[in-house]
Amino acid sequence: MSYAAYKLMHPPTGIDNCASGFITHSPADFSPRILSVQTEDIDSVWSATPTPGVGPIPNLIVTAANVLEVYTVRVREDGNNTNKDSATVAQPQRGGVMAGLSGASLELVCSYRLHGNVESVGVLSSGAEDRTGGRRRDSIILTFRDAKISVLEFDDSAYGLRTSSMHCFEGPQWLHLKKGRESFARGPLIKADPLGRCAGVLVYGLQMIMLKAAEAGGLVVDDGGSSGGGSVSAHIQSSYMISLRDLDAKHVKDFIFVHGYIEPVLVILHEKELTWAGRLPYKHHTCVISALSISTTLKQHPLIWSATNLPHDAYKLLAVPSPIGGVLVICANTIHYHSQSASCILALNNYAVPVDSSQEMSRSSFSVELDAANATWLSNDVAMLSTKSGELLLLTLVHDGRIVQKLDLSKSKASVLTSGITTVGSSFFFLGSRLGDSLLVQFHCGVGSSLGAKEEVGDIEGDLPSSKRLRISSSDALQDMANDDELSLYGSDLNNAQSSQKTFSFTVRDSLINVGPLKDFSYGLRMNTDPNATGVAKQSNYELVCCSGHGKNGSLCVLQRSIRPEIITQEAIPGCKGLWTVYHKSSRNQAEHSKTATDDEEYHAYLIISLESRTMVLQTVSNLEEVTENVDYFVQGSTIYVGNLFGRRRVIQVYSRGARILEGAFMTQDLTFRATNSEAAMTVSSVSIADPYVLLMMTDGSIQLLVGDPSTCTMSINNLAAFQTSKKLITACTLYHDRGTEPWLRKTSTDAWLLTGVSEAIEGPDGTPPDQGDIYCVICYESGTLEIYDVPNFCCVFSVVSFVSGRVFIGDNLFQENSDDSQKLSKSNSKDSSQNMKVVELAMHRWHGENSRPFLFGILTDGTILCYHAYMYEGSENASKSQPNNDQSSSNPGASRLKNLRFSRVSLDTYTREEMSTETHFPRITMFKNIGGCPGFFLSGSRPAWFMKFRERIRIHPQLCDGPIIAFTVLHNMYCNHGFIYVTSQGTLKICQLPSLLSYDNYWPVQKIPLKATPHQVTYFAEKNLYPLIVSVPVSKPLNQVLSSLVDQESGHQIEHDISNLDGTYTVEEFEVRILEPESSGGPWQTKGTIHMQTSENALTVRVVTLSNTTTRENETLLAIGTAYVQGEDVAARGRVLLFSVESSTENSQEKVTEVYSKEMKGAISALASIQGYLLVASGPKVILHKWTGSELNGVAFYDAPPLYVVSLNIVKNFILIGDIHKSIYFLNWKENGSQLTLLAKDFGSLDCFATEFLIDGSTLSLMVSDDQKNVQIFYYAPKVSESWKGQKLLSRAEFHVGAHVTKFLRLQMLPASNGPPGSDKTNRFSLVFGTLDGSIGCIAPLDELTFRRLQSLQKKLVDAVPHVAGLNPKTFRQFHSNGKAHRPGPDSIVDCELLSHYDMLPFENQHEIANQIGTTRSQIISNLNDLALGTSFL
After folding, report:
1. CB 335, CB 348: distance < 8 Å
2. Quick one: pLDDT at residue 1267?
3. Does residue 984 contact residue 990 with C-beta atoms inside 8 Å?
4. Which superkingdom heads the taxonomic lineage of this protein's source (predicted)?
5. CA-to-CA distance for 1074 and 1082, rounded, in angstroms?
6. How far is Cα 1165 from Cα 1182, in angstroms, rounded to an integer?
7. Which of 940, 737, 734 is CA-nearest to residue 840?
8. 638 touches 655 (CB < 8 A)
9. Which residues 6+ apart lie within 8 Å of 1028 measured at CB?
10. Dihedral of CA 755/760/762/763: which sign?
11. What is the pLDDT of residue 974?
């Protein structure tokens, strides 16, 4: 293995930073929406006056490692006027009704994977003081490691972010900023002025970069293209540098811009003299705050006030909002308020010491430690703090005018452990978390009386367990929310006047799933495995069980990349071609309720199965029984399509020569199709239905439309003369039904107001409900042009030339400026290559939801799937000049173009395309509204996959377990609730449901099992299907008990006598090994046994080992645990090796876990492994090999290998790989005949290892190691090479920066690629799957040299060919990061699939061009990437 590919399979989910700002809209865009809701009828105006709407809600910006996402908060008002979209009301809303809102959810605006980890996020505000009349928008400022700053703004024309400025202070010319230092504890920190006049970035510890914002009144720098809606984003004009050394600052801890001054004022928290824990009796109040008035024009920063003698543990500043002003300094044991005129202190616990005895401190009513807290403001005098244990505290500033008299702290609810909090608008806040799921919470502040307050405050403590129960999964949280979270929290003392009393109530509205930090994982079998599966399908038998979270957010995450449906029943049906289920609504009960939410609950009436030469009809209301003989369906041949018409009162069945309209089992109309222009036999090839129209596409490339008359329920054929005359061949077409009272596409039209009036007049009288919406026909020609027509007039309303080429943005050709020259160019160079590309299937769909936008899907002949998401963009006015010279518009002046409709392409890089066959294409996309509660579509074919829509984002989940799937349809009846039916290529029909416990709104489907404890390590006991797991639970113990355990009993030191009267408690982690069994029904996992550790004994490792018993000559499978006693630095380190046998006992379901052996050894037992029947134990600085006699372990051989502490042990055959905590890796082998462990080679550099593993490629063995700087390296052992010092030194084969801490590697055999010959040398090829602390999962897979060279040259091209978000360079990101240590660069032998995945998103012309430049073809590159994806499609 000389070459490898790095592939991210599951992007990171642990949220590091969150912020809020008006990114996609300005505050002024909000006011009319709230008014319109209130003025719908007179009563609601009166009811709405107490709660005047929510006000403008900003966007939420979230970053997780290198993922940047922008969300919009969608709010649902409560009240009777929400019947606009009845489907949304039917879904249960999370959290009940509060402050006039029945629900709120996060909707994704855009998501990017950047080439760099975001260190901090700031929002440059657009500066309107009152924030309501402002037309300007905010910008996002991101900072990256060392000193890169990118400013991003929202671009309406692309519905995404674009970079407005970049500032870099790295490289040789800025070297002097580092002042000789090489490593810095944290990356750049950004804070922005609240009025948006400037922003400050702290880089290299003591350098402050001031970014000056452009003036609002000044000229707009942009070229007018961005000012579409008349709103301009804030942007940066210039930057300059302030050195904080001149202020005599030794160590800057935090800084912030404060409110209430005319010029921006920057307050810096720093230390003038340093101290440390050992010096605290002498130096304890070392911190200082200094307020500088920043003049960006003069580049001066005079000091205006300062405060000294703050505690050494101060670490955070909070700017108090206007009108109070000033700054809060948060320390571990105290909170200080300082402004230019006043100051006050609140002590939080007994450790708070005043500077001198004269200073008096008010104490809080309860004791709390505030180190590592996060905070945000709920109102202008109440701040919310989130502590390190996840409790939420409310800090009230008791003030008179602008003078703060005292600070008051009160307890509130317990919640997730946060990494950041931000307030979103006036009534929401967001808790971002790396350790648990992040939450969007609505809060409501009322003024209440202080009657029953005492019980309520007392209740908060008892509320802890139930609020933990909320976090199980998003579905369980719905029920528990309403009763848990309506607690009122009292902001100030109970004896205050009632009028000043503030009560806060909270309710959780939405949550984002997080599976990180993945400390460890194991690879085990799922419950419903198929023992006969082979090849790729066998991967669906496995799942990853991961330790994630910490403390009360600790959980086991069960991750399954591919969906394995729960089968209800299956039947063999050979030769099946298609499946359809239809409803039957008899005319009698066709009352008005047909359009209400009960529509979704109606059962299907018939299932139609099309075979080679006949059609079967089955009744489906309760159980399936065949009724083919007694129905009037066409059953003598195969069927093309079946669907419902006329509000489910009729069924249409289309076969190759005709169609039948049926009511229930009886035919009401029979149609036959004749060829119009030729005598040739013309048959139907595909059908699309949008009630009451049916679009037929014939085999000769022409189309026909069947028009229905809802009053008589009959159809008539319309030959569409316009299309008969034109000779353009149609390759794919579909109908799109734009539902709802305000159809989405109508808003994008040129004269929207005109259309709405007309359509209602048309639809009113025929008795159809007026919210039918509009119907459009989407057509793709052989030339690759896509056109949208309105039905039934067939006026062209939208057209795109060369839709096939997959451009990133497409809009109506008539109104695209400067499009002519670009099209000529694309025509000329695509003649040779892309003329064989055609669209073979189209689908356009808008799923339910008030703000959902349509998606457009196209499948091409080579298996590429193009996915486009529609958005609205009102282009600049000058584009309309090009209208008259185009003949299309003049020929039909009545057609109203959808000129504001644009589509942006969505990346589907997780989907592995299938190899298309040359025979006839069958439809592969099946839309569904609700399968197991999820909307989306199913893609059948040789690589079936589920595409589900959550929060306006498509989630792709493959389904591998049955191989190719021929046909698929939805089924909802008594026994199969919102399930589905599919037929495999082997001819098996399966009726299934989606597994209900998985959450599908994640990159992989996941089930979270809460542990309420911190998981550390998990392993899989394959014989018994059990998961032994190390967990630790925090336990509060009396201090004297804890201290006495830290004394070495043997040495007999007597402790000083004052220990016995110490009061207080101390929290200690107590360790245990739980043995969990997955529940077959998928319920909560059962604990089958628990092994408790002794006091102050930590379990470090648990492994299932196979030892050969030397007395009986038999192999025994035992559970081995390595522990260490943690007793302080005065006690010599000891540890224990424990061996347990696990027996299944017959009388009860508990497993019998019995201790077979335990032995105490010197040093901590940090790693265990079995090698050829022996047990290898790493104890402290030694590795000892033991043999097992059945009753005890006896040492056989030892090696004093790792100088410090073994982090990981891996074994292949008789080779041993050891990773040390500081001294890199050691490569040993074990010779049984001489019974000795010998060192083969080691890495002489120093490296802080995190995880190690062997990488096997055919007959080559390489050693993989990950380190604390987020790199991975591959070493190899080559004794014959001279650089290896006669084999003592391991040589570097490749190095790569992953950008996340890799905690575990798992070696899995790669799957055979489709085209490779069986029996080739690629069978013994393994890939390493790894998990990281950010919640991402990836793999490193070996490549052969030819593929590697091709992909590497492609990667070099893509660095320049692709516009990278935030202007980051992928090449720099992937270089080895050594954090200032000397490092000799190794070979660059790993390609980055994160960058290669952009190739598929380029337009085809560019793809061909780049392939030509590197001397290969597009199909060759695509096939290489596809083989890699297939080879690593694990789980």
Report:
1. yes
2. 94
3. yes
4. Eukaryota
5. 19
6. 10
7. 734
8. yes
9. 1018, 1019, 1021, 1073, 1074, 1075, 1076, 1102, 1104, 1119
10. positive
11. 84
Question: Residue 1343, CB half-sphere, CA atoms under 13 Å: how many?
Answer: 27
Calpha distance 1222→1207 (Å, rounded):
9
Alpha-carbon gap, residue 577 to 942, rounded angstroms: 14
* Tokens linked to 1401: 């998103």
Residue type, 1378: S
Contact 690, 736 (CB under 8 A): yes
Sorted by sequence, the CB contacts under 8 Å of residue 1201 that are 6+ apart come out as 1182, 1183, 1218, 1226, 1228, 1237, 1239
Residue closest to 972 by CA, chosen among 925, 930, 927, 935: 930
| 538, 475 contact by CB (below 8 A) | no
Question: Quick one: average pLDDT of 460-465?
Answer: 27
Instruction: Give the pLDDT confidence of 1056-1090 residue by residue, as tens digits.
Output: 545 555 667 888 899 999 999 887 766 678 888 89
Tokens, residue 782: 């052989």
Specify which residues 420 forms β-bridges with. 432
Burial level of 1083, CB count in 10 A (0-12/13-18/19+)? exposed
Comparing C-alpha atoms, which of 502, 503, 469 is closest to residue 483? Answer: 469
658, 639 contact by CB (below 8 A) = no
pLDDT computed for residue 771 by the predictor: 47
Cα distances (Å, whole numbers) of residue 496 to 344, 364, 399, 400? 19, 16, 13, 14
User: By mean pLDDT, which of 178-182, 589-593, 1069-1073 is the weakest?
Assistant: 589-593
Token pair recorded at residue 713: 């329920």
Whether the CB-CB separation of 891 and 937 falls below 8 Å is answered with: no
Q: Which of 284-298, 642-656, 765-779 bottoms out in mean pLDDT, i.e. has the lowest?
A: 765-779
Residue position matching structure tokens 């942006």: 904
Single-letter residue type at 438: S
**CA pair distance 1410, 1421, nearest whole angstrom:** 10
**Do strands 1134-1144 and 1114-1125 pair parallel, antiparallel, or not at all (unpaired)?**
antiparallel
1247 secondary structure, DSSP code: B
Which among 1095, 1178, 1093 has a CA at the least distance from the CA of 1140? 1093
How would residue 1330 be classed by pLDDT, with cut points 50, 70 and 90? very high
Q: Which 8-state DSSP code applies to residue 711?
A: T
**Cβ neighbours for 783, distance < 8 A, ≥ 6 positions apart:** 728, 802
Judging by DSSP bridges, how do beta strands 1390-1392 and 3-10 pair with one another?
parallel
Contact between 653 and 632 under an 8 Å Cβ cutoff? The reply is no
d(CA 2, CA 1349): 11
Q: Which helix (H) or strand (E) holds 240?
A: strand 236-243
Rounded to two decimals, the pTM is 0.89
Residue 142 has pLDDT above 70, yes or no: yes
Domains, in order of start, for the chain: 728-906 (no CATH), 1035-1051+1060-1200 (2.130.10.10)
CA dist 1379 → 115, 142, 208, 557, 1225 (Å): 18, 21, 21, 33, 19
Q: What is the pLDDT of residue 772?
A: 64
Cα(178)–Cα(175) distance, integer angstroms = 6
Task: Please name the amino acid found at residue 289.
Answer: I
Structure tokens at 1434: 């694990």
Q: How is residue 476 written in tokens? A: 């369980």
- Among the ranges given (130-139, 770-779, 1137-1146, 1265-1274), the one the predictor scored with the smallest mean pLDDT: 130-139
Q: How many CB atoms lie within 10 A of CB 1345?
A: 10
pLDDT of residue 225: 38
For 698-732, how does the pLDDT look when each residue is reduced to its tens digit (9 = 90+)? Answer: 887 788 888 888 888 888 887 776 676 666 788 88
**pLDDT exceeds cutoff 50 at 802:** yes
* Tokens of residue 248, six digits: 């005599």
Q: Look at residues 1175, 1147, 1173 and name the one whose alpha carbon lies nearest to residue 1161.
A: 1175
User: Other C-beta atoms within 10 Å of 1112: how many?
Assistant: 10
Locus of tokens 């000779």: 727
- Residue that has been written with the tokens 């003036």 in this structure: 215
